[in-house]
Amino acid sequence: MIKKYILICLCLLYIVGCEKHETTKFKLSKEHRDNNWAICMTLPNKKIEITKTQPVKITVLDSGIEQNIPQIKKHIKNTYNAIDRTSETKPFFPHGTMIASILTNTQIKNTKIGITENTNLYDIQVLDEHGKGEPSDTIEGIEWSIKQGVDIINLSFGFAKDDSRLKAAIEKAHLKGILIVASAGNNLGLSTDYPAKYENVLSISAVDKNKKIFAYAGQGKIDFVAPGVNVPVINTEGSIEIQSGTSFATAYASGVISLFIQNGLKNKEEIINSAEKLGEISIYGNGLIQYKN
């Protein structure tokens, strides 16, 4: 029993939060080269019809976005480093760039990575070169996002402990009409991370291509699941990698939600009604988030 407990603790240290060990990389298969199952799963009708609108404004609260990738750079509207309070982000840790690749209409050869072309990204660095962050910097990033008038705040990371100041910042953003989307966490089925656990945050867990839950995903307060196991992303070198984690599922969820916003989203019920129900609410929430015409 003691050995089992120690093993679980070691595994948690290895995968919890937005850490360098959160994701997995391996050689691309022909399937991943030719297509992206995650896009097909979240956009089941294949042909998406959207009334032309102003770009959806999405904050990427993360480790910073690499500016040398043209397909991503053209979407970046503004940058802010919440750690040192400057306008220059330093994306030494690749996580933020990978998240941004899902939130934009990126494509390499035959592999489409991202969801939609009609987005403006607000690159806010709250995680350092090791992928670690403090609630105070996340709060600063949320406050800056509010001033920018964004539509969505994407938080592909989380904290194990509650923080009253973070909760207050989330509530302030919510009252401004901003949708906050956060990852449930990679913690071996233990309780959902913060801020995903808060009432006014959409908590996102991850599923694989067979719609099975990610083995490391947090459980408890879950709103939706999205593709997040062995999904293609673009790294800081502009190449494709395959990654896994609730962080990436969160980016897919934010991308899908941006389509709802472009089509005149009125309330959360529209997203719920469009989701595919998969199972137990504490694991799958309202189901697989999807955009259907």
Descriptive account of the structure:
- This protein has 293 residues and is an alpha/beta fold.
- It has one domain (2-284): Rossmann fold.
- Helices cover 31% and strands 17% of the residues.
- It has ten helices and eleven strands.
- It has helices spanning 2-15, 30-34, 37-42, 70-73, 95-103, 135-148, 164-175, 246-262, 268-274, 281-284; strands spanning 56-62, 76-81, 107-108, 111-112, 119-125, 152-155, 179-183, 202-207, 224-227, 231-234, 240-243.
- It has a seven-stranded parallel beta sheet with strand order 2-5-1-6-7-8-9, with helices on both faces. The chain has a two-stranded antiparallel sheet with strand order 3-4. Strands 10-11 form a two-stranded antiparallel ribbon.
- The longest helix is centred in the C-terminal third of the chain and has 17 residues, at 246-262.
- The protein is globular and about 45 Å long.
- 51% of the residues are buried.
- Mean pLDDT is 87; it is low at 1-34.
